[in-house]
Structures are given as C-alpha cells and as structure tokens.
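Researcher: Here's my situation. A collaborator sent me these components and asked whether they could plausibly form a single complex. I don't have experimental data yet, so a predicted model of the whole assembly would be a useful starting point for our discussion.
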Amino acid sequence: MLLINCPWCGPRDETEFHYGSEAHIAYPEKPEELNDEQWAEYIFIRNNPKGWYAERWVHTASCRRWFNVWRNTINHEFGPSYKPFTKQPSRPK
Amino acid sequence: MVNLKQFRESPLKGSKLGSKSTIYLQEKPFATTLEIRVKQTSGAKGKIEKVLKIKLPTKVGSTFRNKDFTVLTLGPDWWMIVGATTNHEKLIRKSTGSQFVSIVDTSAQRTFIEVSGKYAQAVLEHGWENDLNVQNFPGGSCAQGILARTPVIIYYGPIGVYHLYVRASFAQHLWNFLTDAATEYLAK
Amino acid sequence: MSTVQFSFDGVTYHGNKGEPLSAALLRNDIKVVTESSYLFRPRGVFGLGYEEPNALVQIVSGSGEPMVPATKIELVEGLVVKSLAGVGDLPISPDKARYDKTFKHVDLLIVGAGEAGLLALKKEYKKNKSIIILDDKPNVGGYKNELNEKIPQELLKNLSTDNVIQLQRTTAIGLYDQNYVVAVERRSDHLSSEIIPNFARMRTWHIRAKKIILATGAFQRLIVFPNNDRPGIMLSHAAATYLDKYRVGTFTNCVVFTVDDSGYKDALRIQDTGTNVKAIIDIRQKVSGPLVDQVKKKGIQIITGSCVTNTNSDASGAISSLFVTKSDLKGNINGETNEIICDLLAISGGWTPTVHLATYLNIKPIWNQNTASFNLTKLPKNIEAVGYVKGDFDKSTNPPAVFFGLIPEGEDAKVSFVDLQRDANIRDLRRAVGAGLTSIEHVKRYTTIGTDHDQGKTSGTTTIGLLAQLINKAPGEVGTLTFRPPYIGVPFSALAGRDLGILSDPIRTTSLHNLHLNAKAPMEDVGQWKRPWYFPLEKENMHDAVIRECRAARNDVAAMDASTLGKIDIQGPDAGIFLDRIYTNMFSTLKVGSSRYGLMCGVDGMVFDDGVTTRIAEDRFLMTTTTGGAAKVLDWLEEWLQTEWPELDVYCTSVTEHWSTVAIVGPKARALMAKLSPDLDVSNEAFPFMENRYANVANIPARIARISFSGELAYEINVEAWFGSHIWQEVFSQGKEFGITAYGTETMHVLRAEKGFVIVGQETDGTQTPMDLDMDWIVSKKKDFIGKRSFARTDTSRTDRHQLVGLLPVHNQDLLPEGSYVTKDEETIEDSVSKHIGYVTSSYYSDALARTFALSLVVNGKSLIGKFVSIPVGDKIIKAEIVNSVLFDKENRRRDG
Ligand SMILES: [Zn+2]
C-alpha cells in the first residue's frame, strides 16, 4: 500500500485517496473551437511513461483536497507533492 | 412551546460497553456542530474567531478547545465547531456580512462515540490505519480518515479519551466493529 | 519439561511440550513421514524451519490447517495431525477461531531476532522511539539458540522495554512500497490444540516503518546427487540440532557431506551426542583451521575433494549406505567408488540468505562468490540488511565451495532431486535447457522448481547454480528467481481477520432502519445502504405486497423512506454559475425556494448522475444525488472547483445523513399533509409543484418539497435525522384514516418506470447521452457545461446509438428478465442469435397498466416505435412491441392531485 504525502495532512495511506490520472491536463478554454481529434485527445489520451510521472490525487477521506505529486512508475517512489496552481517542482533524479 | 428534545433519537441510543480499566465505549449523542468553510486569507476568518472567541487553527489536524467549543481543523479551509448551534451560525453570518463563508449545521450528520480505557489505542489500531503513537498523535490532535472502512474523524482529547465522529448511517457498523475489536481486551 | 500426548496418522505418541513436531516424530523414531507428491517416494524430516520441503502435515485438531511444515508446529497436548503428500484438504466446516489484524506505525522494524537482529536492536535502540522486532521462532536467538549458545544479556535487555514490541512466532510475509510490511503472528496454537474462544488465533500486523532492518538469516541448502531424497538424509544443521538440542533421533552411523565448514561444526555436535560420525566428505580439496583440527582430534575421517555419488536404502526407504568418489567442483567424477554404511547423511550445501522480502520490491540480490550465495548489497534508503542477508558470514572459517551437486544423465538424473517438494530433478532441468530455455524464470515454470509452498527455500540457489553450469554461465549472470508474497503459506482466515459477516463491508442505515426491521421489511442492498424492499403483510408474497403498495400510492396515499439520497450543501456567491457548468440545464435562474431536476454528464458527454437541486437562498443550494453516487459526485464537484475554477467562490459540504426524508405520495397526500402541518397552506396554488415550504410537521421544523418520483401528488418531508423516527411514526398514526401504506424500493421502481423515469446506473452504464435517454429537453443550448462539446462528436451524434424505449410483451403477463438481450423480430432462438439490438434495463408487473412492461436500450430505438422485437428467454422467444418509455399518465395530470 502506498504512503502518499498530502501537502496539507502529511503522509497517509493510499486507502484515503483517489487517483486522478495525469496532472496538468487543463480543461480547454474554448472546447467548441477544438476539432473532434483535439477534443478526444483531451478526454481520453494520457501519457503512460516508464519513470517519473506527475499525477493527481485527491485526499478523499480526509481534507478533500486535490494535489499533484511526482511518482516513479517503476518502483512507486514518490517525489515532491505540490498544490494545484503552484510551481511544479523539477522532475526528481 | 413543545420541548423537541423528547422526539430525538440517536443512532446508537446512548449505548455503552466495558469499563475504564480495560476498554470503555460510549455513544455521547446530540452534540451540535457547525462546519465552517472559509479561506485562510479571508478577513471573515478573523471575524468568526472574534465573534465566537475561538481560534480556527491553521494546520490541518490541530484543534482548539475552550469551555464552550471544540474546533477541529479538517482541511486548510475547513473547520468543524463542536458545541456551536444554529444561534452561533446567525452570530457568524451577522459578523461576516457579505464576505464569503460557508456555514452548515451538520449536527445530525454524525454521532459521537467515546473510546477510553487502558486499551483504547489498541482497540482503535485494529481498524485505524493512521499513526496513533502519542508522540505523533498527541492529545489535542485530530485526524479524518478511515476506521473499519468507515469515514471517521478521531479527536484525541487532552485527557486520553478518543472522540470518534462518525456519519450516522455508519454508526451501527462502527459500533459493531468497536465492540468486536474490544472482545479480547474486555476479557482481560 | 512436560510430556504431552499427540496423534500422528491415527497413532498416539508422546513428546515434549513445545518442541517442534518434527523433533517429536524423530523422538518416536518416525523416519518416513510421508510420500512425495508426484513420485510417491518415501520422505522424512529434512530441515528445521520453513525451509522444510518434505515433512508436511495436515493439522486436524482445533481450526485445522491443510499444509503446515512439521518443523513449525509446536507440540501441545491433544494435537492431531496427519501426513500428507504435498496436497492438503481444506476443512469444509467454517473455522470457529478468531483472527484479527492491527495497524502499527514505528520508527524501526527489525525482521529477525537472531544474533544479527538483536545486535541491530542494541545499536538502534536509543535512536528510535518505537521499535518492532519480530521473529518466526518461539524464542529470540535464531541460529545461536539452535546451537544451544547463550545469548548475552546485553542483547536481550532492550526487548522488555516500553518502546519495543517483541513479536515471536511472527513471520513477515510481504514487504510493499514505502516500507509497509505485513506480518502474521501465530498466537494460540502453541497454547492449546483446541480453539481458544475470544482470543485471536492469528493476528495480521500491518506495519509501516520509517526504517526496516532485514536480519532474516539464512537456510542451509541441499546438494544434488542420485537418491539424495531418502529419509535419513537431512540438512546438517537440522540433524545436529535435533540430536543435540532436542535430544531426539536414533541414528547409529552418520556421514556428513559438506561444501563448507558448517559441516564440520555439525559433525562435532553430532559426534558429541554419541552418534558415530564415520566421515566428513568435503568437495573442497584443501581445508584447514581450528574446526578441522577439532574434527581430526576426535578421529573423524575427512575425505576431501570428493562427492556422494549415490545412496542405498533399507526396506523402509531410509538411507542405509552411500557411495563416495573423487570429484572436482564441476562434478566430474574420477576414481574408485567406496561404499559407507550409514543411517544418517547430514548435508551441508552452503547457506542461502533469506532475501525474499527485499525481492518483493524488485530489488535484485547480487551474487557473491565468497559466500556462494546471493546477498543484499544494494538497498533503497530506509532499508538495511544485516548478517547473512548482507553477506556477513562467519569470517573465521574457510570459504565455502561453489558447488551445487552432480548433473548426471540417464536414470540417475531422474532420482537426483533439485526440488524435493515438487519432485523436480536433474532430468527436468536438462530437458528445460535442451528445449532452449536459459532464463531462470522460464526454467522455473518449465520444471516447476520453486513453485510449491516452500518457494524453493532449499532449492533456489542450487537450481541457479546448476543451470549456470549447464549453460556455461556464472550464477550471478543467471540471477535470482522472482519471489512473491506471501513468504510462507498463510490461511485466508488470517488475512481476512474480522472482516467477516456483517463486518465484511459497512452496512449503512437510515434513522428509520429499526422501524423498517420491526415492520419485517426485507432489505435490499443499494450500494452499502440497506433499504426496505417491500413491506409484506402477514403471509403476503412480494408480488402481492408490491401490487398493494402501488395501488395505495396511485389511489390513496403511501409513504417511503427517501433518506438515502446523497445531499450536498453548496454555498457561495458563485454557486449558481457553478451549477450551470455542472448540470446540463440552467440553475442560476432558479427562484429561491424552488427545486429543479438536473442531469450531469462527464466530459465525454455521458450521463453521470442526476437528482433534484433546491435553491435554499440566493447563494445556497441543496443538491441531491443518486443513493450510490453521493461520494462520487462530491469528489467531482471538488475536482472542478479546486483544479479548474478556483476563481469561483463556492464550497460544498456533505449533509446526506443530516436529513431524514419521508415522502408521502398519492392522491390523498394533500389531505394528510394538511393534517400533519395545520399551519401550512397545501393548496396547489399556494404550494405548487417543485416548490419548497418551511413548516412544522407534527411539531418538528421541516422543509417540505413538492417533488415526485412516481408521477403522483407527493410531498417530501425533510427533518433533522434524529427526528426521522418520530416523523415516520407520526405520518403513519395520522395517516391511518387515509389508508397510509408503507412502500419500499420495489414499488418505487415500478412507479417510476411506469412514468419512464430513469435510474442512473440501471438505465445507464456510462455510455448514454441525455439524448439517448430521450431527455433532449434537459440539455441547454444557451450555455456551456461539462460534456457539451462531446455531444457534437461524431460518435455521440450518430443515429444508431442505443436509445431508451419501452417494451410491452405481446402476452401481457410475460415478464422479461432484466438484462435480457433484445433481438430483431425472429421466430426462433437460433434465428435470433447474433441479431441483438439492445437489452432490457428494467422490467416489472404494473398494476396500473394491468400488465407487464419493461424499459430497454435499443439501437435506434426511437425510430422503431410500433415495431416488434424478440427477447430470447431460456429456450423460448418472448415477443414485445417497442413503445415510448412513458407508459402512464403521459400528460402529467396526476402530480398536482
Ligand atoms: Zn489531506
């Protein structure tokens, strides 16, 4: 079970969180101006890298806050967590 | 004026079990609560603190307590004030005026179970996944999380009593879990 | 030490309380314990702990357990076991014993309380506030303890302090991300052979440690040669410990076969018990040092540079003699063969460190030629290895030979065992290599080596070594097997703990639950909620009860508990704008005190949840969600507020349980409402449909909403939940004169389906747009909202989508099973195959229509209205007509009474 660092509550067990997939996928400003392919890209297509990945979690069972975190998809090592709309910390080594 | 209290019924009807020398469980029904949502940076926060003579602590998991209220910090902009009533809601609204603050009376949303006695921590650890070691969860701490797959707020009071706040629909399940978890300790 | 009685294969024996069952079997001279799983060869006790591949038993007494190594059962009075050949029987009756689990967070976890673990505790004690040290044996000391060596007091003193939890008989079975260890403690089998009531037989420890020290030690491994599996052939440390520590085993002549100095140490221990050690056969050419000198002094013959090449057995199958020949480290035999008569062959094949836990994290152990084993040298921070696992072997001794055994051909290959438990042998290994397999993972699967309960504890490194030799590689190049948790066999009951029966999943109840139980209403599971399904009168079946309840709602008045709907308080100056973006229809224009039905979609345009939302104040709404969707919707709202629209001043608070809701439904609901709330003007003009009023209901302050999920005149009374029970009882006592009838979820379904109202999750599965559900009217053209762009996608605007329609079976009493396929109009099952065009989502008998009906999603359904379809049910075809989904009161004449 993962131990995830909530920027507000500190490290807590995975069972308290829900996963939110890739971070930094913003809702398009003018959806109606996108063609079907671009719109489908926004809805359905996410990166799936081997290695460091910036992803979203929500601390559902506690503070209810959404946040971003770097996670290594190879060994589940966590890098820094950071709040939405704050500067993204650089990719961990 | 009819006294409405006679018509109230709590989810566990004031159940209790055990003894302080081992493990003691008790429902403390009908505490009243307000849930306050206000931004840390909002001027309304200070006004609420002033009008109720309380503190809304900054750090999630910390608490404030005086003779009237217990304030639990559940999120960066989220407090639960135990002991505050609908009248307090009116006081707050009056003091904050048009400033944005969300106030919700959630008194009947949760029921309150006290867990105390020598083995209180051990009983909770059968289902609570977070750290209850006193050095990491000292008296006056609170945490919202999952106990026996149930959303629960635990407030560790200053005198070594755990106060559990559980959504009423889960109350019987949590009680079933707690009384079961107490089995081995009750026999001691 | 007290003597206890136990039963093995139906025969009563005696042994010493607390000694391993394997020792007690040897005490009673039981050398042949069982037959092997596949080849039915006689086998005896081989090891001392969880490495045991042969002496498996089924525990019959107490809880019973199908497959346990005899080495790990502590003898207690009344223990009943039977031997088994690798396959146990699961007990068929429920286990009455208690099992539980606990969660612990510690600064330090030490796995293993042998000398290395105790030294680590001493070193780390002051630096850590909370420590768990666990060990799978009854006592600390590990190997030292088995050697009967005293553990210095300074290593023990920290064990009995407040900040150390010492767990014996506890095995770490898994190590997971971020230092999460699951360990199973066996708490009562050593106390009693019977189940101890109210006491957990096993406890599963879920431990999160800031730092972990692996002090898991090592197991001795076997050496491969023909007929290396006979009873009387044992690992030398096990043999010496049985003889020396437990004083069991009647052997006359012993030979030790070794690749390292451990064989010498064990030879001395065995010799000291009075058993004659005739020789030590050492594969190494040259040996020296104090142990060798001691052996020589005792007059034990040392045969160097040699290998056991075969064994003979007596009538029971136990070893009676062995053959020894000169051999090099590649197993090339050369020279004359000598026979030595013996009844005990003690094998010292080197030590295999227990690296399993680390490998669960995908950490690769590194081959160390000096220890002839795989060691943990590279570990992530916060995990440390000490002792054998790190490669810290006894430095005062000669290095072990890198030798794993012989690789014979022909018939000898078939009896040269690599994995005793799987009966896997050199022939299997040769065939794997012959088939072109070179990866240890492939060889493992081809030969099944290492796949049994013991996961190759005695055979793993041996397999790697022999494979390396066969393919001309070094063991380090072959690499280790992938181990997976659990490290030992664990009963499911231990993992389940108390998560059984009513505790297996939370049961959510409303404040009226006890009243529903008193009314003997059967319950329906709706997510985690228990909701009354129907309220049968005495001797009434469900069908009749539902007809009666429907009639009451359509003709008189009926009441239901609607408290389970999710409720979210939404406050803030931007709440209206927020809801406009969330719902497909407009909410910012809603008048204070009014309610509106809303539909929300995902960004993909598919219906996600629905419910009625009420404007409580200019800047405050009360949203209701589906019963099962409440948590999901709250997450959804928070996600958009926090991650996309932080500029909106809106907060959401769950109030699901704060309110109890009683719906009173039917033509006489108005009269009842007037009686319950004498001060409230209940006329349609004063209190129209979709509006809310605040009034006292039977003295209790309430919000009353004119909302209908049945098409009938209805009032929903909302009170603080602790008044729910009082209100329900008042509704029934005051409603008696109107013939008030309680109804459950089944009647609710019939009533709503007659009106064509969908249930999200029943009529939808995440692939329906509002248009598919014939709800174009709810999709605003004026504003943007989540999902809108998707309605213009090619896929969502195509005409051959599944669309909601009604179905009327041609024979009006035929009930279509929910989930049935709808196919094109065909006469036979055969013809209907592969012609399905949809499925039945809801199906009921309607009293109001005096017939059965169904809702269904059918490809291009709306254009098929008036056409017929076939529904294959069992071996029959049921014909039905496609109709509009609204079947009752199409003009909504009833909702105002
Ligand atoms: Zn949090």
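Model: Some features of this prediction you could bring to your collaborator: Residues 130 and 163 of chain C are 5 Å apart (CA to CA). Residues A 6, 8-9, 59, 62-63, 65 surround zinc ion (CB under 6 Å).
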